[in-house]
Amino acid sequence: MTDTLTLRSPDDWHLHLRDGAMLRAVAPETARHFARAIIMPNLVPPVVTGAQAAAYRERILAALPDGTSFQPLMTLYLTEDTNPDDLAKAHADGLIMAVKLYPAGATTNSASGVADFDKVRPVLERMAEIGCPLCVHGEVVDSDVDIFDREAVFIDRVLDPIRRATPDLRVVMEHITTKQGVDYAAEGGASLGATITTHHLVINRNHILAGGIKPHYYCLPVAKREEHRLALRKAATSGDPSYFLGTDSAPHTDANKLLPCGCAGCFTATNTLSILAEVFEQDNALDKLEAFTSLNGPRFYGLPANTDTITLTKGDPVKYPDQIETTDGPVTVFDPMMPLHWRVTT
Ligand code: DOR
Ligand code: ZN
């Protein structure tokens, strides 16, 4: 029986670190085990210039314990006013790794996102020219589209037309949650990748809604039917280079989750690697875990895989804290509803 597992150090290709007190509380949780992460720009106000990205990067580094080697890979928040020259300069100067597209109103702090996709066409063309990837929150926001259908409809109505119009644009479908997302990513070739979160491998929509509402399982895109979760498991554990880990770990204080209109987001930074090892072991795919956490992402982004390693060891169930403390209040750690036997030992 395998009871230790050594992997190239993992990267998180989709992470929310926030700012201020929350940043100081959550950044060490990711930096403990991950070498690099793509940092989401949906701060208030959003990160829209290279200078803001550089300043945010400094705040992240300052939030880490001394001696931590963690590389934040910064992104810009795409708006209808984003200037292609400014974006190209930020990319050429090495200040940003990618650009994030939020459809306006789709999720947390997305009000400055894109409502009219034609308006960002020149920016997307420029990104294709310079090889800057676009990370996409793939949900339509139309009130007449059922929330459980919004990802599939986005692929047909928005993503596919963008990719046809700009075939050289490198695109990451962020946090896919459906079989349609899995299938679309599989057919997209080397210019298309998809991140999958830890929590979408574990929960389906029943976990949010059956037997009482569970605000800590509410995130966007919302978890779908079981058949979709199974499609995500199959994709993540396949080793296919189209799929890589983007945790979308998205901390909100409990006070902000447990409201009549609570915030979307699951906070998984603390226990993600233990959960993933358990999931991959359940699917007899521990040999594919490294591809998902450590190899496929760098390959898509054109970066070398990390050379250092981490080791996971299997033993008695690991107890993680139910919450982490911040000076703004506690943040609940995602409950995977199963014992976790793998812990990071080095
Ligand atoms: O659940 C989510 N939380 N989905 C997102 O797209 C945004 C994120 C956040 O920033 O809280
Ligand atoms: Zn996110």
List the helices and strands and how they pair.
Elements: E1 4-8, E2 11-15, H1 20-31, E3 36-39, H2 50-62, E4 71-77, H3 84-92, E5 98-101, H4 121-130, E6 134-136, H5 150-165, E7 171-173, H6 179-186, E8 192-196, H7 205-209, H8 226-236, E9 243-245, H9 254-257, H10 272-282, H11 289-301, E10 309-314, E11 323-324, E12 331-332, E13 342-344
Parallel strand pairs: 2-3, 3-4, 4-5, 5-6, 6-7, 7-8, 8-9
Antiparallel strand pairs: 1-10, 10-13, 11-12
Helix pairs in contact: 3-4
Bound molecules: (4S)-2,6-dioxohexahydropyrimidine-4-carboxylic acid and zinc ion (ZN).
Zinc ion (ZN) is lined by residues 14, 16, 40, 248, 250.
Descriptive report:
This protein has 346 residues and is α/β, with parallel strands linked by helices. The protein has a single domain (4-344), classed as Metal-dependent hydrolases (TIM Barrel), CATH 3.20.20.140. Helix content is 32%, strand content 15%. It is built from 11 helices and 13 strands. The protein has helices at 20-31, 50-62, 84-92, 121-130, 150-165, 179-186, 205-209, 226-236, 254-257, 272-282, 289-301; strands spanning 4-8, 11-15, 36-39, 71-77, 98-101, 134-136, 171-173, 192-196, 243-245, 309-314, 323-324, 331-332, 342-344. The strands form 3 sheets. An 8-stranded parallel sheet has the order 2-3-4-5-6-7-8-9. Strands 1-10-13 form a 3-stranded antiparallel sheet, with helices on one face. α4 links the parallel β5 (98-101) and β6. α3 runs parallel beside α4 (121-130). The protein is globular. The model has no long low-confidence stretch (mean pLDDT 97).
